[in-house]
Amino acid sequence: MEKLRTVRGVHDLLPNELHKHNIVINAGLEISDKYNYSQIETPIFEFSEVFTKPLGMSSDIVTKENYIFKDRSEDELMLRPEGTSGVVRAFLNAGLVQDVPQRFSYYGPMFRYERPQKGRLRQFKQIGVECLGLSSSMADIEVISLGHDFLNKLDLLDKINLTINTLGDFESRQKYRDALINYLKGYQTKLSKDSIRRLSINPLRILDSKDPDDQKIIKHSPNILDFLNFESKIRFEEICKGLDHLNIKYNIDKNLVRGLDYYCHTAFEFVTNELGTQGTVLAGGRYDGLSKMLGGSDIPGVGWAAGIERLSLMISSEFVKQTDVVLMGQAESFNYLLLPIMKKLIQEGIKSEIIYTGNFSKKFKRANKINASYAIILGEEEINDKIFKFKNLKSGIEELLNLDQIIKKLKN
RNA sequence: GCGGGUGUAGCUCAGUUGGUUAGAGCGCGGGUUUGUGGUACCUGAGGUCGCCGGUUCGAAGCCGGUCACUCGCCCCA
Fold this sequence. Notes:
By secondary structure, this protein is α+β, with helices and mostly antiparallel strands. It has helices at residues 15-34, 49-55, 60-63, 84-93, 137-153, 170-185, 193-201, 212-219, 230-245, 290-293, 308-314, 335-347, 360-369, 380-383, 403-411; strands at 38-39, 45-47, 68-70, 76-79, 102-111, 123-132, 160-166, 251-252, 264-272, 280-286, 301-307, 323-329, 352-355, 372-378, 388-392, 398-401.
């Protein structure tokens, strides 16, 4: 038995859990469709560069969490760690640059070789949206509003807070980065080990360090908002104004940063404190540089991705198996006679199951277990008259009817 | 990748300072009910005590390793 198990951080989805995933997915796809985002699907593996180029070599996703392998033709491939790069690649590939804006939604499995935790798996599912070809801040607002409506649809907004920030454009960020490094170098001996390492790899990441000593230092660090150039500043103000206009509540957190290289300007996260340390439930931002990093033309984009497992941990819903009708015969030889009856019911859109084994007592127990509403009973008493005993399992009422009458009753 | 916790039946858990046939509740099977369920009662099956090794006359309980889960860090949805 020991050998028969899933690999670490990769789980089976039994009906009860899958049902919750599907609730999340359907809510997301539906609201996306209303916002006129069209569903797209890209392969779960790509040439490695599709991910390594845009994500950046400073990101752990690329350096230590990847599932890279060579196939039989020696191509270096990678299981996708996120959705955006593949969607943008598909967009470029299909020549849709000629036809912007394009609005996409997607969902599917992603893969990261991480240490598993609750709400963090090695194979996990994300649902996301991407709006390509619009540089206007309106697109950012639209996308956040879509995410907000999605979470509202799942009735989770009272447990989730929206935090936003801006990273500015490349110029602003570069200036800020220099100022930040300059400031932090003064505290180099007091910073945590992780942060000293970040100082050379990804200094902005120090801003959301959880180390209490780091936080004291960060408290007085330069503020990104002071380094924004005019354009970046206006753009951020527009977004705040737009969210206000939609009555979407948010906090500005100057220390909210993004780990992936392709982000710029708007960054946002919907976070809950119900899932411990894995509280980010939906997050995204603007990624104007991504298309170019992939070797395409300069196409702006903004989007988000949400963790399906994390959201499904938060929704309360139980999968209860429902069956419209069960069919049972008195003896095993009656099962053959029930087969065409069941087929007819199914054609009428009625969810049916023949209970093949056991005596009537056992068959009724089975009927209860699968939550059947009605039973069609065929025994020696009925068979000659071409009728059935039709029993309402909730009320216990039984009547003798022919098949047409039964179907009529079931469809009323 | 780093640090802490946990691991006994399908599920939730008991198991006294190591002592002989490892328990309970729920669930599952059979029966009370040879054409009728959801309740009740009776009854049965199911565990190499995560895995490997060590200490011991003797290990579910101690020690070491390993795997998985879990909490935090890293990172991220």
